[in-house]
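Q: I have 155 residues here and want to know how they pack in 3D. Can you give me a structure?
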Amino acid sequence: MTTTFTLNGAGVTAEVDPDMPLLWVVRDHLGLTGTKFGCGIAACGACTMHVDGVATRTCVLPVSAVEGARVTTIEGVSNGENLSPVQQAWLDHQVPQCGYCQSGMIMAAEALLAENPKPTDDDIDAAITNICRCGTYDRVRAAIHSVAKQKGEAL
């Protein structure tokens, strides 16, 4: 079956089983490997992409569910060689340790800040439910707050 959707701003068509998870279509068939597989049950968040702007765990999402949708992966967050403010904050606050979960964490943070430009700690805790085995949650929170502060100063 053929599924057509927009991936990082470009139209794509995938001729795969409609039940194949979007994660595997993007990684194995479309060659974008920044999004990671973690648990396979949508619990850890390593597989987070945006589907029509919503942070979505894609290891269990059938590709058929994104027919006609806009999908953004970690590769689509930056503007060419310029990192997004969230990606830069991740580096500035030394969030990554092993780094495995970070693409999913960044995607969740991007979606949170798009919806709520000035999140509280409680907002962050509620929205960022991704699992980081290295335990960098305090750094994640600091990075998100720094981006919120920058956006507030830019207004």
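Q: Anything worth noting?
A: The mean pLDDT is 96. The chain has two domains: 3-76, 85-154.
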